[in-house]
Amino acid sequence: MNCAQPADRTSLRTNGQVGVKNLTSYTTGEQALGRSREVDERRVSGGTGWIDWLSTPPGRYMIDWEQAQFDASVADLFGYFALQCGLPQLDCLRNNRMSSRIHARFLDDAADSGGHPDSTVTTVRLAHFEEMPFASQSLDLVVLPHVLEFAHDPHQVLREVDRVLRPEGRVLLTGLNPVSLWSARQLMPRVVLPPFLPRESVLLGQPRLRDWLKLLGFEVERGRFGCFRPPCRTQRWLDRTAFMERAGDRWWPVCGAVYFLSAIKRVRAMRLVGPAWKRGVTVRGPAAVATPQRTSAPPNVAATQRASAPKTAAAPQRASAPSAVSAPRPVRAPQRYM
User: Which domain holds residue 231?
Assistant: First the structure.
């Protein structure tokens, strides 16, 4: 269940009249805290947790690549309200110029307990992202960095994002690619090698997410893969295999360890309404077009004219000229004399 602090709700309204639901209608206290603990146990259970893995060399390598992608994507996105869900280790909205930026965190997430240094960023505490305390069509940008991999119901998270986004709003998300060297290393038996990625994550492929977004009416603008280096645990081996970054982007571009997706919410059957003083103007019909008339007379009139016309005498025919070749003369038989 959702739970937000009263101070955060006041700051939301002060920063820009975001449509926030009545948070008192949600169940708070022990139920919300129990749900939050369940989510937090899923994120850190099973050996190396997600939060601990992000502090390792491959985790920092992934965070750096995603930070560069978000900085380039949100720089030219304009609007009023932007929301980032989860992953406080990554500031996805630091390069964005929207007036109101909101960071949604879990109740037990202690990564940003000291607050965000930027005064324009508001922090909201939630138990899960399947239900958000925002009015419908009130946000211009929603960022989901590795949220769907740890959500109990990824479909419901996307439906909630579709509800809170305005028409032509954007959603940016990242995830681990199940078709990569890192995933292949994860599938190896644990007797041979320990798991490389956190075991509690559920990997979702990019084609699968494209289908989900298309069913909700989103148009995928662009997608990109990154982190082509092999699954190395030390920074030394990651530096040695840096040449595979360019080679992978050219020769196996769909086998990167991480993918980035950007989609736009499209709303069909919309039309612009003009000013009120133009609505009373009557629409004129199509102008009359003159058609060409027929120049020839009807067949019965032509026949009547030919019958009534006077007959003229036939002109005398000229004698034909003699032929240049004369006819052959008859040959006489020779006469005999007695």
Answer: 6-12+23-265
